[in-house]
Specification:
By secondary structure, the chain is an alpha/beta fold. Helix content is 29%, strand content 15%. It folds into two domains: 3-176, DHBP synthase (Alpha-Beta Complex), CATH 3.90.870.10; 256-333, 3-Layer(aba) Sandwich (Rossmann fold). The chain is built from ten helices and 14 strands. Strand 9 (198-201), helix 8 and strand 10 form a beta-alpha-beta unit. The longest helix is centred in the C-terminal third of the chain and has 17 residues, at 290-306. The structure holds threonylcarbamoyladenylate and magnesium ion. Magnesium ion (MG) binds next to loops.
Length: 335
């Protein structure tokens, strides 16, 4: 498959065809508001196995199931706590994944054998249309990891998906082009199998937003990610839960990533627009705020790789909210 074969016009016909392909067991990469996903029918174990092979991902890592609406989660999850329902109502469709107790529909091949399942309703018109079309022909949900090779940067454009995966995809597979992703970093993952929500991966939905939707005190919401906590939060270990994105070396470009040092001649540099570029340094990104920082981060690092740069310096944003997600990913990229 090459880039000219991308389905660049996501017409209703193209989406219907892509939904049919999913039902036949093919892989369909699709845009979401966070990053591009590599979708397969979440009930088809052979298709899921091929998706894992294309990604080069170990089989014991669970994958998120994407559905078009909150109603669809009743197929996948049981014993949903009230706080999870409150989160779903408030932030779906949106950049949030809920880990819930799994139903009988859920195969071990999407959970890595765990008794929970990750669910998300993405906020992107192409994703929602694809999921709805798939559901209209009997599909129950689309399992989709980020559409990159295991350990690499997540793709935020269809071209980046092609760079990552076209060597591994077959002729029947599809890459849907929905432009560049608005958020740019992966969804917030919230474990909802305990008494209180527990943040396993920070993203655009912050701990403050979780507290707001659930009326649960911030101090009761556990976090176990690296990169620090925004509000003096607990840092509970979650050794029993496998989150591949929580591996220390992940989300990495080919170039070496250096954090918060002064860049020197020949190095790439990503920093807020208010920070100047020293002479001889190759400016890769100048976002004006933290949201834009998240949006351009992965494409700027890819750009460095495309230019053959060997080192990227990033001046990290310092605040809470999405800046926390940015620092979490950068810490891993720099590992
Ligand atoms: O924004 C996103 O979440 C993107 C888009 C495509 O939706 N998806 C994404 O998927 O980032 P992936 O597979 O690259 O990362 C999902 C993370 C993995 O680290 C996985 O281990 C974790 O979610 N996960 C999935 N199901 C889980 C479960 N039942 N328990 C714990 N972690 C789970
Ligand atoms: Mg990923």
């Amino acid at each position: 498959m090459n880039q000219s074969e991308f389905q660049s016009h996501t017409t209703a016909d193209a989406l219907r065809d892509a939904a049919k392909k999913l039902a036949q067991g093919a892989l369909v990469a699709f845009p979401t508001e966070t990053v591009y996903g590599l979708g397969v029918d979440a009930t088809n174990s052979a298709a899921v196995a091929r998706m894992y092979a294309v990604k080069g991902r170990p089989a014991d890592h669970p994958v998120i199931v994407h559905v078009s609406s909150v109603q669809m989660i009743s197929h996948w999850a049981i014993d949903i706590p009230d706080y999870a329902t409150a989160l779903a109502r408030k932030y779906w469709p949106g950049p949030m994944t809920l880990i819930l107790k799994r139903s009988d529909l859920v195969g071990d091949f999407i959970t890595g054998g765990q008794d929970s399942v990750g669910l998300r309703v993405p906020d992107h018109s192409v994703a929602i249309a694809l999921l709805a079309a798939f559901e209209s022909i009997g599909g129950k949900g689309v399992a989709a990891p980020s559409a990159n090779r295991f350990g690499h940067l997540s793709p935020t454009t269809a071209a980046a998906v092609g760079q990552e995966l076209s060597d591994f995809l077959d002729a029947e597979d599809v890459i849907l082009d929905g432009g560049s992703c608005d958020v740019g970093v992966e969804s917030t993952i919230i474990d909802c199998t305990g008494e209180f929500p527990r943040v396993l991966r920070p993203g655009a939905i912050s701990v403050a937003m979780i507290a707001d939707a659930t009326d649960i005190a911030i101090e009761s919401i556990y976090t176990n990610y690296i990169g620090g906590s925004d509000d003096g939060l607990n840092n509970a270990a979650a050794d029993d839960i496998r989150v591949s994105g929580s591996l220390e070396n992940h989300y990495a470009p080919d170039a070496r990533v250096l954090l918060d040092v002064v860049p020197t001649v020949g190095q790439g540099f990503i920093a807020l627009a208010s920070i100047d570029t020293p002479p001889g340094v190759i400016r890769l990104g100048s976002p004006v705020n933290d949201e834009e920082f998240a949006r351009i981060l992965y494409s700027s690092m890819r750009n460095a790789d495309d230019q053959g740069l060997t080192e990227i310096v990033v001046a990290q944003p310092v605040r809470g909210g999405i800046a926390l997600a940015i620092r979490d990913r950068l810490k891993r990229a720099a590992h």
